[in-house]
Amino acid sequence: MTNKLTGFEVKPEQRQSWQSIAMVWIGSMICVPCLMIGGLIGSGMPIGNVITAIIIGYGIICVYMSLIGMQGCDTGLPTAVMASGALGEKGARYIISSVLAIACIGWFGIQSAVCGTSFSAMLLSMTGINIPVGLSSTFWGIIMLVTACYGFKGLKWLNFVAVPMLLIVCGYGVWAAMAQFDGMTVMANYVPPQPIPLMTGISLVVATFAVGGAISSDYCRFAKSRNDVIKSSVLGVLPAGLIMLLVGAVMSIVTGEYDISAVLTAVGVPAVGLIALVLATWTTNVTNAYSGGLSLSNLLGVDESRFKTTTAIAGGFGTLLAAVGVLSKFTAFLTLLSALVPALVGVLIADYWIIGKGDPKQFKLREGVYAPGMISFLVGALIACITGGTFASFPALVTAMPALNTPFFIGPVNGIIVSMVLYIVLVKVMPQPEASYSEAA
After folding, report:
1. Does residue 439 form part of some domain?
2. Which single residue of 176, 292, 335, 415 could bond 380 by disulfide (Cβ 3.0 to 4.6 Å)?
3. Nearest-angstrom CA–CA distance, 64 and 334
4. 188-200 burial, b for 16+ CB within 10 Å, e for fewer?
5. CATH number at residue 311
6. CA 68 to chain CA mean position, Å
7. pLDDT tens-digit profile of 11-63?
8. With b meaning 16 or more CB within 10 Å and e meaning fewer, what string describes 281-313?
């Protein structure tokens, strides 16, 4: 499908099997942040509640990423461009593309910094060679960026090689930790020192892949059918997510450490831990650079033929941030961006699946700024931040306005529901501008 307004297209020969797309999602799920969140909820919950939180949290992700992915499969458009249907071309280009580009670039930099820091520390402990963290972060950022510039084929083959290796390494890490630290006894007697409510655990699980679910169209547009989108989303996210968060939870309870590389170092196989760390970061980070490049393409008004250039810019900027060591100051800001994205999902779902009844023939890209979509997105994002505790990262702001931190249910889900309902209402009550549409295909 070729889009006359944007120049984006998916040719028949570019269509991929659902297994190929699922491998990209699996590679995205196998990462240090997932282990970290698993360790966090594992330290505050019984294992039964951990499993419940993971299944519900990733179940929510799978539902909305399947809907966004099927829309991408129908239209052939990445999320940043597809949003023009609900927010207008200028709204999607300047607001949504900026949010997605900044989020992906920022997370690329954070992952590169994590990899560089750990690589330098482990190499020093293994060989006595001291490589500056900035240099190490730059090196691995460039390696990951080169892979991302190959586009979907690069991601597919990287994950086909790396994912099985990572699963074996994680399995060995858990077995070694359980054997060395008498894990069964520790888990049987474990009492969380600071219990975490189930709803908080679900929110944390959703947060690990909120952005990934929203940009599912970037990859699912290459799927051959809607059924393939559903299979790749559910089988690519839920099993891998359950495994990784459980690995993090078990290791945190047994050893007090969620990081697989650190655990493997503790049990005497640091080289294996180093390989696991690099591959886990690599398979996740190439998706950050690739999606960041697509969003940047739309922001700059260039078509997909120049995605290598925009991907290089996105990843290069993230690598630069990692190298100079300023990313720690952006963590709260990136958390805020991650909370904003699900509200976009609500607007897109309402526009395509409810107003448009899921019919590709009814999907159109609106020019300019479409008020119902922009208003719904902004209100939904605000509700997600307020009820999800996002503003807790900004103590001065909460002190001045305590109402900004009012936890309720699941923040990202609240944002989706509010933006969805509000969009449906506003489309019906606000006058529709004439001749404001461009055909999607």
Report:
1. no
2. 415
3. 21
4. eeeeeeeebeeeb
5. 1.10.4160.10
6. 14
7. 888 899 999 999 989 988 988 778 888 988 998 998 899 999 999 999 999 99
8. bbbbbbbbbbbbbbbbbbbeeeebebbeebbbb
Measured in degrees and rounded to the nearest 5, phi and psi for residue 172 equal -65, -40
Residue 439, SS3 per DSSP: strand
- H helix intervals, 181-225: 183-188, 198-208, 210-214, 217-220
Looking at residue 350, the DSSP 8-state letter turns out to be: I
Question: Is 441 inside a domain boundary?
Answer: no
Q: Which residue has the higher pLDDT, 367 or 414?
A: 414
Measure the CA–CA gap between 89 and 298, rounded to whole angstroms. Answer: 10
| Residue 363 contacts residue 440 (beta carbons within 8 Å) | yes
CA distances, 120 to each of 114, 137, 328 (Å): 10, 9, 18
Determine, yes or no, domain membership for 5.
Answer: no
**What is the span of the domain harbouring residue 100?**
12-330
CB-CB contact of 266 with 122 (8 Å): no
CA angle, 318 as apex, 314 and 319 as ends, to 5°? 115
Give the CA dihedral 135, 266, 240, 281, nearest 10 degrees.
0
Query: Based on the structure, what is the number of domains in the chain?
Result: 1
What does the pLDDT read at residue 260? 67
Rounded Cα gap, residues 216 and 73, in angstroms: 10
